[in-house]
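Reagents: none. Just compute today. Thiamine-monophosphate kinase.
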Amino acid sequence: MDEFARIRHWTEHRQSAALLASQGVVTGIGDDAAVVALPPDEQSPAEWLLAVDTMVETVHFNDATMAEEDVGWKALAANVSDIAAMGGTPRHALVSVSAPKAWGPERVRRLYDGLYACAGHYGVAVVGGDTTSSPLHLVVAVTVTGTVAAGKAIRRAGARPGDAVFVTGAAGMAAAGLHFLLAAGSAAAGGGDSPRPVPPAAAEAAGTAALVQAHRRPAPSVRAAALLAARGTVTSLNDVSDGLASEAWEIAEASGVKLALRESRLPRSGSLTAYAHRAGVDPLDWILYGGEDYALLGTIAAEDADAAKAELEAAGLPMYLIGEAEQGPAGVELVRDYGERGPGSRRGRFSSPRREPLAKRGYNHFGG
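Predicted 3D structure written out:
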């Protein structure tokens, strides 16, 4: 099967004419470049948003942690989340795949199955891309376009003292899911360096199915972003891709404010807490420093925070108010109500909340 036959095998008849038309696609896959017009449902004037993300085998995924369909879903979802984090609507995707011999046509087709499933879920038109061979590992790079009303893109740099800090989902789930997959896969392999794939039944039996799902099939907060953007009171926004602490630092530094995150308000999944206890891990470590949850972290005018939370909850979407933006040097602090009361003692309530500087760390490709 040559290159062009493979492209047809992977992409032909995947999306309806109605979906493509809804995103303003004039010419899609099959020419030297795609042609798109401003989607007919977009209010004018509008601005384009552009995002790109790359996934590399052995760096972002391997056979033990993700199926081919999961890789495709996640490669697109990461970009969809970036568009949502600007308060925009995702529109089009360009997909570049570099595949080694181990990834034959059918394996790559399964990757496209997952990618098109994600595209269909979020209404994204796949309009082109590129395919090449790779000497060793699979590389998937996806570029997504989106639109936002002119001058209304929500940046990281708008947080103001007095704003409320919010997050649109429980953090740490994906990191806990990855931990389970690696630990269970290593145990199945007899403790070797090459973990085995973990069947879904094993995750169900261990009570970690939701954690595994969060790692393999993250759900960007697109609907929440649209509702929040429409209110006009969100002052900064970021998506939790590298960890809650890391993203909070990005907002704090871009805005020149201090963010105080309250430990008691951080959402905790019951399955995450239970698995962390069994694994001997402090769940707060995953919540603060895990990544790839793709919930939205941001700040909103304090006087509208409760109303915004009520609107999202009425739509079946979570929103947690987890802290405040304050005047002061750019930074992030954790406000703790509970802690250890001495060697060997039980965790109990402090007489008054304690503030601790929150380390500026999370996932970083180059360790900086």
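Residues 105-122 form the longest helix (18 residues).
Action item: order primers for follow-up constructs.
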